[in-house]
Protein 1
Amino acid sequence: MKIVVYGAGVMAQYVKDSIISSNNEFVGFVDPLGNGDFKKLSGENIDYDAIIDFSHFTLIDDVLEAAVSKNVPVVIATTGHTPEQLKKIEDASKKIPLIKATNTSLGVTVLNEIVAYATKLLSDFDIEIVEKHHNRKIDAPSGTANTLLEVVEKNLDGDYRVVYGREGESKRQPKEIGVHSIRGGNIVGEHTVIYAKNDEIIEIKHEALSRKMFSDGAVKAILYLKDKPAGSYEMKDVLGINK
């Protein structure tokens, strides 16, 4: 499979290595600033079978245009898309197979499933989500933490209030979900969901030791999409969790 990588940053380099180690062909990097092999994809005569996007959400139009015009699958691993951009992604999924993932780690995919099950069983526990990343990360909470929050909320009955960080002199209220972000050093990524009640605490945690797990997962995802009909797929489809 001939795979082009949208983006030319650190993650894009990992994706290149994962493509090559999986015995597929790396076509090149795409970067509008000129740091890659190509400045854009749409309208260009470039031979590729698939796109993996690890760039920036503002570049999604070129990614989708190119994928639809070439009729190739795409894995979108960027976050922060506007409602209008999400609608474009949805429209594109009617024409090509695609995966939009806040986290392409296979372990995090399993983490989401475990958290869904645990939340149903521990709905009367206090639930807190803690995520840690390096000091260069711009967004907070992380996209993965937001996905975990969605998983928790989906598996709770009734309305819950989300509290981002804590300060002041008020105690924790019932039906709250706490979300906390920590930034420091070179932490690759760590996500923990805490369930606490009375005299017991249960923690479900995933820690990334290298960014390679994200690139390996993205390549596994794009290979899964090969020959699939148009549609919007998820990382758990890649692992066969939906079967």
Protein 2
Amino acid sequence: MIAYATLGTNDMDRSIAFYDAVFGAIGGVRQVTTRTWTQYGRGEERAEVCLTRPYDGKAATSGNGTMLAFETEDHAAVNAFHAAALAHGGEDAGEPGLREGTHYVAYVRDPEGNKLCVFAPK
């Protein structure tokens, strides 16, 4: 159902360094970089994530209650995503661990304050 999601950034270079690392940890790659936006995807999946400067020229802000979640295959990838986020300017928002007995999950905030989740089956 989702074709793509966008995240605003105030510092494209900093965001690219962060997302190259965290998406690389779960098999994602940077597909396109232009003057105003950068796109990431993974394999044959249709859904993509784009970084962009806000069209209205105002500062990018994170949304309270807004979160993007990324599914991966195993606990090692969740741990790698979380570690990459912290090593590249992200903040811990929930260390890797089993949640509600159903999934292995970690939460981080990117350098702009956007909340991200990565999870794998129990």
